[in-house]
């Protein structure tokens, strides 16, 4: 194989020079740019809180009181997984729809309205969260990104979230409108792939957000306003996870979209199969909502049977991800062979590794495979008990959302920025180092988190060390694991600094007319090969709703029957009812006694097992 | 250079998870390696890769058309 192919950069970014997105859609480019910049702001804040909390809980650097930990953790979670991801994806979706339908949005004012709505919501929630840092404002929202009862936030937090979600609903309406207009002018034509992906993702989102909208509007918001006295925690948790699982696909599907429509192009080839990509998105639409109960394996008040059904559904959900792995790798191989790659493994060398867009996405995909494996462990009802609420779980999702999604978004940014600004990417090699650093940082951090979880070290605590009890590592020591986690977080922070350097460097640059053309990958097997029924969005929407009804009616009914709509008189955390707290203290005393006597035995057992 | 600078960077990145995990894997076979030893091992591996990458087997192949963009 000739190395010259590897080094040929013009190939990596594709086509001869042509029209950049900005030239064709100047007004839309501005909206997309604003969405991306909002998302980067959230990434910066979230990342900062990430490293603060990591160094705190590993006891390397403590610049805050442990009581503040939940404010930091909430900000980290909400800013990153709700705001960073969703602001980014609405930008990318707008790009995908306008590019693939080859038409601007129907009314750019409406587009600004939804982006403005989302921003207003984000600001409200952020204010409520950040107010937790000061005592001078009587407001806080330390409820973590899984904001279910009995944790209670200031009403502004819930109102902000609602406004934000309404913004995304309007955004979806905008894209559907574009599609309807296009359909009128192009009767009988297949929906272009990126638009198909956007629409299926949005249908899933509409179905999924019913759960969270109900939880907030019917229960949490009235409760935090003092209109109702209590809620049924199992009910609000179940409604939360109704949304809480599909939301992970709301982050992931845009990343998949980029793996399908950008990655093959950047590898120098074509998408392996357009029909398969459509099947994958339809499967996600159908399967991602009726599985939320798999987050509640350890919740009391939901019978084992419903949990078992959720587990079975979850395992089916592996299918579209495995199909994606196959299609994307096949497309990359096709690209590599187009570039002169040969051999069974040798073709890997012909991939454009020097291109940060490619390297970032490829590394993200690879880590996603690892995340898939730990995800299978989480999904297994019995083995989940071993890792539930341990550091394993953040280990898992820093591979999925924290890398597969976040790294793909950062890598894609290096492709989008020139399209959106008309400026050349500043610091290509810096960008390459950035994606590699993220990969290394996450390797350290998540590997140690998974292992720490297996030892039972809990997540979501500033003080994972306990008096009179020592966690024992199977290999090495707990101190080493902590060091790995802290080291990883420092790499990640450096990586973020480089990312912002590239973004700012590019934004400050001057216009260039040397920008690669806007576009996306063609397919080896195109839309004409896919059965017509795949484009029948009404059918898939209907089926998705039916599956949700089947999966959720009975669990919800039985939860309401047992606890009542407004619950067995649960008040907000922190608890203040005397009887309850007295019973609690007594129980705790018993627990402590039992624990002390059991811990020696446990320790002996652990030593025995690990030896 | 036997491979491009960028490919070298990627190869080095891949050695990181390899070295990190190696210790756990070896422990499985009852071979205990300390942190220090695995750091040494990692360093040795990286030096080996660098030597392999930087010294071409014959001088004729100057591949570095890259020069960076
Ligand atoms: C600078 C990079 C990052 C560092 C150092 C970091 C570190 C951490 C740590 C140590 C935890 C666990 C804290 C605990 O349970 O006590 C955590 C939680 C979390 N991280 Fe990150 N993280 C980073 C980036 C990200 C990214 C990019 C995302 C998503 C896009 C993300 C999403 C989350 C979420 C959702 C949680 C769970 C919050 C909760 O339990 O409520 N993190 N992070
Ligand atoms: Cu889930």
TrEMBL record, chain B:
The chain crosses the membrane at residues 7-29, 35-55. This is CbaC protein. Keywords: Membrane, Transmembrane, Transmembrane helix.
């Amino acid at each position: 194989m000739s190395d010259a192919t590897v080094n040929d950069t013009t190939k990596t970014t594709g086509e001869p020079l042509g029209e950049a997105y900005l030239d064709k859609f100047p007004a839309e480019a501005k909206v997309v740019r604003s969405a991306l910049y909002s998302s980067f702001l959230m990434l910066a804040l979230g990342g900062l809180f990430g490293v603060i909390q990591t160094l705190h809980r590993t006891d390397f650097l403590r610049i805050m009181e442990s009581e503040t930990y939940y404010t930091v953790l909430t900000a980290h979670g909400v800013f990153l997984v709700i705001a960073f991801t969703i602001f980014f994806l609405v930008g990318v979706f707008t790009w995908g729809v306008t590019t693939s339908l080859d038409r601007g949005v129907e009314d750019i004012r409406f587009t600004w309205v939804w982006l403005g709505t989302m921003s207003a919501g984000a600001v409200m929630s952020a204010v409520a969260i950040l107010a937790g840092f000061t005592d001078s404002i009587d407001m806080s929202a330390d409820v973590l990104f899984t904001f279910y009862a009995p944790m209670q936030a200031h009403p502004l937090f819930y109102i902000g979230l609602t406004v934000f979600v309404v913004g995304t609903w309007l955004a979806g309406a905008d894209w559907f409108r574009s599609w309807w207009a296009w359909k009128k002018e192009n009767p009988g034509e297949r929906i272009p792939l990126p638009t198909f992906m956007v629409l299926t993702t949005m249908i899933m989102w509409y179905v999924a957000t019913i759960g969270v909208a109900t939880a907030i509007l019917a229960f949490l918001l009235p409760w935090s306003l003092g209109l109702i006295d209590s809620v049924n925690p199992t009910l609000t948790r179940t409604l939360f996870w109704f949304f809480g699982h599909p939301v992970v696909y709301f982050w992931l599907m845009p990343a998949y979209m980029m793996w399908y429509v950008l990655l093959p192009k950047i590898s120098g080839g074509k998408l392996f199969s357009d029909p398969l990509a459509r099947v994958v998105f339809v499967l996600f639409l159908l399967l991602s909502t009726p599985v939320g109960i798999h987050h509640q394996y350890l919740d009391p008040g939901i019978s084992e049977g419903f949990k078992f059904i959720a587990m079975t559904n979850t395992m089916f959900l592996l299918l579209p991800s495995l199909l994606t792995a196959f299609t994307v790798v096949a497309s990359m191989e096709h690209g590599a062979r187009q570039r002169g790659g040969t051999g069974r493994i040798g073709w890997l060398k012909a991939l454009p590794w020097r291109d940060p867009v490619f390297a970032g996405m490829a590394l993200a995909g690879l880590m996603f495979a690892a995340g898939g494996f730990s995800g299978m462990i989480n999904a297994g009802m019995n083995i989940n008990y071993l890792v539930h609420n341990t550091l394993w779980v953040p280990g898992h999702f820093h591979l999925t959302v924290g890398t597969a999604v976040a790294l793909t978004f950062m890598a894609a940014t290096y492709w989008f920025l020139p399209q959106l600004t008309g400026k050349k990417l500043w610091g290509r090699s810096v960008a390459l180092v950035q994606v590699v650093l993220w990969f290394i940082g996450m390797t350290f951090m998540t590997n140690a988190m998974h292992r720490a979880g297996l030892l039972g070290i809990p997540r979501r605590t500033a003080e994972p060390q306990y008096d009179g009890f020592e966690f024992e590592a199977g290999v090495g020591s707990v101190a080493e694991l902590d060091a790995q986690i802290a080291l990883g977080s420092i790499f990640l922070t450096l990586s973020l600094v480089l990312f912002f350097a590239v973004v700012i460097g590019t934004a400050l640059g001057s216009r260039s007319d040397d920008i690669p053309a806007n576009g996306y990958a063609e397919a080896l097997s195109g839309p004409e090969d896919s059965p017509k029924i795949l484009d029948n969005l009404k059918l898939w929407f209907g089926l998705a709703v039916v599956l949700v009804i089947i999966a959720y009616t009975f669990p919800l009914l039985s939860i309401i029957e047992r606890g009542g709509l407004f619950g067995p008189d649960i008040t907000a955390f922190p608890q203040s009812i005397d009887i309850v707290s007295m019973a609690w203290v007594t129980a705790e005393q018993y627990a402590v006694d039992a624990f002390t006597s059991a811990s020696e035995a446990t320790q002996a057992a652990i030593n025995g097992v690990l030896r | 250079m036997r491979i491009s600078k960028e490919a070298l960077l990627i190869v080095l990145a891949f050695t990181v998870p390899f070295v990190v995990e190696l210790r756990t894997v070896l422990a499985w076979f009852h071979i205990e390696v300390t942190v220090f030893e695995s750091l040494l091992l990692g360093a040795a591996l990286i030096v080996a890769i660098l030597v392999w990458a930087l010294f071409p087997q014959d001088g004729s192949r100057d591949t570095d058309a890259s020069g960076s963009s």
